[in-house]
């Protein structure tokens, strides 16, 4: 059984999502990618340069890991606190390992003298501190990687707790299974967890044991909304490109390669008018009508001087003709018994080429019709253009496949079923989330209602993550005694990236990455909270996976609007996301966000009715305790805005 390893990256910038953690993944690769590797990285996390967070994480991990590598915060600046944070934890120091790292690295660069590497044992876990740069961290670990397994074995030997630790080293069966999945999402960096726990909190929070022993404080730091979104977005990429049959193209999909015209449009010289194909040099006069070239008909006719042919708009111009005269500029001279035209008088003089679209007039063969990155809208123009390109398939980013479930013993899944017992609640979240995800462009899988049972929940999540990029659940993420989502995610080998967000509603919104680049969004059970969280976090993630962009502005569009509604007292703790209707006011030449404050409770699904925006209200202060009618606010767009008053 491989030794479980934790890799902790210490970096202010990475923890704020301002830089990508490259050392964590590089260290992981160094340990896991050697043939017959004795290591399995089971925990990864990025924390800021805060001694408390470093100490708490290493103390927690050391109970379950045999090796913890801490990268970063080992420089000489006053903000570099890693070694100072670790030293009090060391039951035994391992100076020789530290010296081996320094000596080896000095052979590569004299700069190695400028970092404080450290090694020691916490419990029976070997803990190393290495520099934070990708190069420095790898070079240091490389110096001792050959002796590390033995160091770890020795550190754990002769202790009565050894067997317990080895048991803990075995990954849960569900985690092992999930890790074997074919990755369907772009590689997601798992080391982005920004949650911090109190020192005494264990992973899994409260999966077993008596209710009396439950956690009475959330172990998750309440992260600001934008930080949470940046962290979640960093875990996904645009899905890899695939060839999609034209009939399967849907709004929201994004081109991964340009659409090129396989053929010119029109493919033949085509008439722009209903009339007569003529030889322009003939001019006005009486001419014999040879027959007709109709739209879609073959240009089998040969027009010669002194003759004309009837022609319809869009039809091929017959050989010999070089212009078209409109039917309005002609007179009938003679017809036969069947009513066919025999002779006509041409009244107008036309130039050669007049009323003819030459080959490639609309589209040149080989020209780029649509660039890579273009998104398919519901307008129809994109799909229409793809169809006239002459190709059968287009190269597009994949479409996220998302499974949706509701949790809760109280929930009735069947629409219209009688309220079976006191306390029964109709499942309104799942239909709402499925509808919104479909509209965003996802392929959805409905997992139904899952009871508050960790076994069934783990089984359902594990199975869904085999075929889907992610799962969106609602309910079971707060402090209730049957709130199982987070413990189950961790049991499946997941890393909770954030477990609480500083917002109202939807505070308990949780995001976790799982093995094989899967993710779970565990949204709160309160109906309005679940839908708000979907639009605030899941929608931008889906847009990024579809390839619609990678900036916050592109993925979570917003406008400045004038608020119309009653005075609203601002929450002093959490910024509030108020459901609103965004309307363009021709009179004010501005967006107006109409807010009704009576229905804003998180239990009220009806607060979402007719909403196409979430007005982001800041936290209240003494200087600004409330917002009033006429104030300027930021409105996050969740559906197309309206251009007519309601
Ligand atoms: N002690 C604390 N209690 C609560 C906290 C807290 O911080 N400390 N947070 C509150 C907040 S804020 C929210 S939001 C909710 C979220 O709770 P859960 O996500 O665990 O959701 P449940 O407890 O399962 O359900 C809450 C509520 O919503 C109803 N529900 C659940 N699922 C559905 C559904 N699919 N369709 C319709 N209604 C649903 C459920 O019956 C409950 O009434 O926690 C607060 N508590
Ligand atoms: O944050 Mo909860 O979503 O207020 O109700």
Automatic annotation (TrEMBL):
Cofactors, names only: Mg(2+)
EC number: 2.7.7.75
Region (Disordered): 198-219
Protein name stated in the entry: molybdopterin adenylyltransferase
Gene3D superfamilies the record matches: MoaB/Mog-like domain, MoeA, C-terminal, domain IV, Molybdopterin biosynthesis moea protein, domain 2, Molybdopterin biosynthesis moea protein, domain 3
Pathway as given in its UniProt record: Cofactor biosynthesis; molybdopterin biosynthesis
Catalyzed reactions per annotation: adenylyl-molybdopterin + molybdate = Mo-molybdopterin + AMP + H(+); molybdopterin + ATP + H(+) = adenylyl-molybdopterin + diphosphate
An annotated GO cellular component: cytosol
Matching NCBIfam families: molyb_syn
GO molecular function, one term: molybdopterin molybdotransferase activity
UniProt record similarity statement: In the C-terminal section; belongs to the MoeA family. In the N-terminal section; belongs to the MoaB/Mog family.
Species of the source: Coemansia erecta
InterPro entries: MoaB/Mog-like_dom_sf, MoaB/Mog_dom, MoeA-like, MoeA_C_domain_IV, MoeA_C_domain_IV_sf, MoeA_linker/N, MoeA_linker/N_sf
Domain MoaB/Mog: 6-151, 403-544
GO process terms (BP): Mo-molybdopterin cofactor biosynthetic process
Purpose: Catalyzes two steps in the biosynthesis of the molybdenum cofactor. In the first step, molybdopterin is adenylated. Subsequently, molybdate is inserted into adenylated molybdopterin and AMP is released.
Keyword Metal-binding listed: yes
Keywords associated with the record: Magnesium, Metal-binding, Molybdenum, Molybdenum cofactor biosynthesis, Transferase
């Amino acid at each position: 059984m491989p030794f479980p390893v934790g890799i902790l990256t210490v970096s202010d910038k990475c923890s704020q999502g301002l830089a990508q953690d490259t050392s964590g993944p590089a260290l992981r690769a160094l340990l896991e990618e050697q043939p017959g590797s004795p290591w399995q990285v089971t925990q990864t996390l990025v924390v800021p340069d805060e001694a408390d967070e470093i100490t708490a994480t290493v103390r927690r991990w050391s109970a379950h890991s045999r090796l913890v590598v801490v990268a970063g915060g080992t420089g000489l600046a006053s903000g570099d606190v890693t070694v100072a944070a670790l030293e009090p934890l060391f039951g035994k120091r391992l100076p020789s390992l530290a010296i081996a790292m320094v000596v080896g690295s000095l052979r590569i660069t004299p700069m190695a003298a400028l970092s404080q590497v450290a090694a020691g044992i916490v419990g029976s876990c070997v803990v190393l501190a290495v520099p934070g740069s990708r190069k420095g961290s790898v070079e240091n670990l490389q110096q001792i990687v050959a002796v590390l397994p033995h160091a770890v074995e020795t550190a754990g030997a002769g202790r009565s707790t050894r067997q317990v630790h080895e048991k803990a080293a075995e990954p849960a069966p569900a985690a092992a299974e999930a890790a074997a999945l074919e990755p369907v999402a772009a590689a997601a960096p798992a080391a982005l967890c920004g949650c911090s726990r109190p020192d005494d909190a264990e992973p899994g929070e409260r999966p077993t044991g008596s209710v009396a022993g439950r956690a009475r404080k959330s172990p998750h730091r309440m992260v600001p909304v934008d930080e949470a979104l940046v962290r979640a977005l960093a875990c996904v990429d645009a899905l890899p490109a695939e060839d999609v049959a034209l009939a399967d193209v849907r709004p929201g999909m994004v081109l991964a390669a340009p659409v090129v015209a396989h053929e010119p449009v029109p493919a033949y010289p085509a008439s722009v008018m209903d009339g007569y194909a003529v030889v322009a040099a003939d001019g006005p006069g009486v001419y014999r009508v040879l027959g007709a070239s109709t739209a879609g008909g073959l240009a089998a006719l040969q027009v010669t001087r002194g003759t004309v042919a009837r022609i319809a708009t869009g039809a091929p111009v017959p050989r010999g003709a070089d212009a078209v005269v409109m039917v309005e500029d002609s007179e009938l001279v003679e017809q036969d018994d069947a009513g066919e035209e025999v002779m006509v008088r041409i009244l107008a003089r036309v130039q050669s080429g007049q009323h003819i679209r030459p080959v490639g007039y609309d589209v040149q063969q080989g020209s780029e019709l649509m660039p890579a990155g273009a998104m398919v809208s519901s307008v129809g123009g994109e799909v229409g253009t793809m169809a006239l390109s002459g190709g059968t398939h287009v190269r597009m980013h994949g479409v996220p496949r998302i499974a949706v479930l509701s949790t809760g013993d109280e929930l009735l899944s069947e629409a219209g079923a009688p309220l079976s017992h006191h306390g029964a609640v109709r499942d309104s979240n799942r239909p709402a989330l499925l509808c919104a995800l479909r509209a965003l462009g996802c392929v959805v899988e409905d997992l139904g209602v899952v009871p508050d049972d960790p076994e069934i929940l783990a089984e359902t999540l594990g199975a869904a993550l085999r075929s889907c990029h992610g799962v969106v659940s609602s309910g079971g993420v707060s402090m209730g005694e049957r709130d199982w989502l987070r413990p189950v995610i961790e049991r499946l080998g997941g890393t909770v990236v954030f477990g609480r967000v500083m917002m109202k509603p939807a505070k308990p919104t949780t995001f976790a990455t799982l093995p094989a680049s899967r993710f779970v969004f565990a949204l709160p059970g309160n109906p309005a909270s679940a839908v708000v969280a979907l639009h605030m976090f899941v929608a931008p993630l889906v847009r990024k996976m579809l390839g619609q962009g990678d900036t916050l502005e592109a993925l979570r569009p917003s406008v400045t609007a004038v608020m119309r509604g009653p005075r609203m007292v601002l929450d002093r703790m959490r910024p509030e996301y108020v459901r609103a209707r965004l309307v363009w006011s021709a009179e004010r030449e501005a967006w107006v966000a109409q807010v009704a404050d009576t229905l804003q409770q998180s239990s009220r699904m009806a607060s979402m009715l007719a909403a196409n925006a979430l007005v982001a209200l800041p936290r209240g202060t003494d200087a600004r305790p409330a917002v009033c009618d006429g104030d300027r606010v930021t409105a996050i767009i969740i559906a197309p805005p309206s251009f007519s008053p309601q």
